[in-house]
Amino acid sequence: MIIPTTNEELDRRLGGIPFPALIMIEGDHGTGKSVMGAQFVYGLLSAGKSGYIITTEQSTYGYLKKMREVKIDLIPFFLRGKLGMAPLNTSRFSWNSSLAKKLLYFILEFIRRVKDFVLIDSFTVISTFARGEDLMEFLKGLRVAVSNGKEIIITVHPNAFSEDMVTRVRSEADVYFRTSSASIGNRRVKVIEKIKTSESTFGSDSISFDVDPSLGIKVVPLTLSRA
Fold first, then answer.
1. pTM (global) more than 0.85
2. Are the C-beta atoms of 14 and 5 separated by less than 8 Å?
3. Residue 89's CB: how many other CB atoms inside 10 A?
4. Which pLDDT does position 21 carry in this prediction?
5. How many helices (H) and strands (E) would you count in the chain?
6. Which of 7, 62, 138, 217 would be 58's cystine partner, CB 3.0–4.6 Å?
7. Which parts of the sequence belong to the KaiC-like domain (predicted)?
8. Which CATH number fits domain 2-219: 1.10.1020.10, 3.40.50.620, 3.40.50.300, 3.40.190.150?
9. How many other β-carbons are positioned within 10 Å of the β-carbon of residue 9?
10. How many CA atoms does the CB half-sphere of 117 hold within 13 Å?
11. What is the pLDDT of residue 42?
12. Does residue 94 have a cis peptide bond before it, meaning omega lies within 30 degrees of 0?
């Protein structure tokens, strides 16, 4: 099943969201990965799905406010009980591999109780401290959730996984996006690239876009050649 993001320009170029699926969005700070993840969630909610956002970087109020400021208003869904927020304040923990393993188990158990989808924004801190074998068990658990009809969307910063883990993580994901910033002429834009796609997805492999406070995600009608 392909579900529209509800952003017409984005859907025309990206092709919509495969459901169910495990989707990874990798990108540096400020490259639009969190906004893109929220847009995917908005599309799922608009299609009648319900689920949760696990945010490790902001409070519930802060996340919803930030997304409403870029025209992704999740608050009505939150107030109607279609969207739940699960803030995970990672800054208060003393991180080690044992704690990371416990949190991975906790998140998997949480996902099992969710109806349709979960967005984890972002997974970076947990993945940085988790051991490879624990991450692989976690990814196997996510695959089981997808096989049971759930959508899992994860945002992560570059270098959050060790070199030997990156290939394994991509092999488990159905769709793997990478966001970045680029200069086209004198204009600074964001770019989302499909690094891996599932058989059900279509659309462009590389899309340039901007995040306009008055319009939300706006596709920039410029082509960007891969380096």
1. yes
2. yes
3. 11
4. 96
5. 8, 11
6. 62
7. 4-221
8. 3.40.50.300
9. 17
10. 28
11. 98
12. no
CA distance 128 to 72: 29
Locate all alpha helices (DSSP H) within 69-122, ordered by sequence: 75-79, 97-113
Distance CA 102, CA 170 (A): 23
> Can you give the length of the chain in residues?
227
23 SS3 class: strand
Boundaries of every domain in the chain: 2-219
Q: Is the pLDDT of residue 105 over 90?
A: yes
Lookup result for tokens 């802060």: 62
> Quick one: which of 108, 104, 159 has its CA closest to 133?
104
Strand intervals (E) in the chain: 2-3, 17-18, 22-27, 51-55, 83-87, 117-121, 151-156, 175-184, 187-196, 206-212, 216-219
Q: Which long-range contacts (CB under 8 A, 24 or more apart) does 59-63 make?
A: 59/87, 60/85, 60/87, 63/87, 63/121
